[in-house]
Amino acid sequence: MKNILIINGHPNSSSFSFAIAESYRKGALEANANVDTITISELNFNPNLAHGYQKRMALEPDLVEAWEKIEKANHLVWIHPVWWAGLPAITKGFIDRLFLPGMAFRYRENSVWWDKLLKGKSAHIITTLDQPSWYYRLVYGRPSVNQLKKGVLQFCGIKPVRVTYVGIIKSSDEEQRINWLKKIHQMGKQLK
């Protein structure tokens, strides 16, 4: 049985990202997957990696529990909006605090290479946009996706990593949103 972890990176519980997370969750449950969730904005933690990698900060209990969920999962579903072409600050802080040397990856001594400690997992990034996805890719080079997909997930050994763009959110009507949620529900049922 597949263990799915949905990580919601939107800080506003009334956002469309929460409806996306719920649609995916319901679809995955219909496919008999084990489904767990992390709502980053509900966690109690300091998102500032105050000392970089020079001095390890103790993980707060919510981060310890979140890491246990990440380790248990076969498939991670990241849901977040694109703000200023990037991730919301709370999502970036979550990554900074958890995807650490010795946990998500390990530097090799006297080498530019590293060991990827999260191999065997896959991921799906579902990101909302207030611009056409083609515009975000061509004009901006999709920095939030590159950061999360290449700079974090693949860096730590997670692959494959699929990406789904949802938008344009700000000009969408109820019918469009219902159709998007149906597609996300189907993705959950297909466990991808």
Outline:
With 192 residues, the protein is of the alpha/beta class. It contains six helices and seven strands.
Your description of this structure?
This protein is of the alpha/beta class and 192 residues long. It has six helices and seven strands. It has helices at residues 16-30, 61-72, 89-98, 133-140, 143-154, 174-189, and strands at 3-8, 34-39, 75-81, 105-107, 114-116, 122-129, 161-167. Strand 1, helix 1 (16-30) and strand 2 (34-39) form a beta-alpha-beta unit. Helix 1 (16-30) runs parallel beside helix 6. The longest helix is centred in the last third of the chain and has 16 residues, at 174-189. The radius of gyration is 17 Å and the shape is globular. The mean pLDDT is 96.
Task: Spell out the blueprint of helices and strands.
Elements: E1 3-8, H1 16-30, E2 34-39, H2 61-72, E3 75-81, H3 89-98, E4 105-107, E5 114-116, E6 122-129, H4 133-140, H5 143-154, E7 161-167, H6 174-189
Parallel strand pairs: 1-2, 1-3, 3-6, 6-7
Antiparallel strand pairs: 4-5
Helix pairs in contact: 1-6
